[in-house]
Amino acid sequence: VTVLGFVSTWDRAPDWKAALTALEPGLDFRIDPELGDARQIEAALVWKPRPGALATMPNLKVIVSLGAGVDSLRREEMPADVPVVRMIDPQLTRGMVEYVLYAVLRQHRYFPFFEDKQRASAWDQGGPVPDTARTTVGVMGIGVIGGAIARALREVGFAVRGWSRTPHAVEGIEGFHGADGLAPFLAECRHAVCVLPLTPATRGLIDARFLSLLPKGAHLINIGRGGHADEAAILAALDSGRLGHATLDVFHQEPLPAEHRFWRHPGVTLTPHVASLTLARTGAPHVIAAVRAVREGRRPDGLVDWARGY
Ligand code: GLV
Fold first, then answer.
1. Ligand 1: centre distance to CA 53 (Å)
2. Does 273 participate in catalysis according to the annotation?
3. Max intra-chain CA distance, the chain
4. What's the pLDDT tens digit per position in 71-113?
């Protein structure tokens, strides 16, 4: 019998209990802080864990993150020899794909313009017809989620390019990588999508220089982490017209303070970190598979390498 400790200050424990026990009826599902004898716990399912909770589980074999990003896990609190696995959930990926398709198409097809015109009862067909095949969308982060986003954009007909830390080949997508690849990558992006993991190497990537490398009037979409972006630089680029629009789901401080200029800026479309969230029903198989892999001495899918940071 697997004893699993659920340690999240955010996720819905009943949903996870139902989804996991549907797959493994014998599972002993314990919810922090009611962990019983914590020495029995061999798997922990965590998101923003209560400080100190994991330290009470000396026999832990695997930690599974409820989110795709593991930056919230406070590495220093992760028991040193316990593998950490990040979430890979088909619905989480699909949600990110939906969000990006919507954000790109909304700007590409001038919906904000037509919404304004409708409010003025004005029949105005606007500017030139958008040429989709000649519109470049760049995706930064070409892993499980970014790869799916890039393929979906290509399917719609955009010219898609990807940027990643190390070379990553995705069929039909022009690849760029590393610090040297950033400027040539950004030079053609009408829409630039950040879906990178937050690591020391990617923190602060979207700064004034980055924004100056995009074509004038480009659209930035950040669904990675707030820490990827210099928020003052985004506001300055929007104010100067260098950046045409920003679709932002993640922020330095969440919830975003009510006085933040992003809320009211006409060049910003803002959502409260909902681009995609893990769904228990579709994420549960990954949790079970990770526990099994570790128990059988195999490498679990989504194993975190702390040296690279994700
Ligand atoms: C959400 O932000 C996640 O990392 O899954």
1. 21
2. yes
3. 69
4. 988 888 889 899 999 999 999 999 999 999 999 999 999 999 9
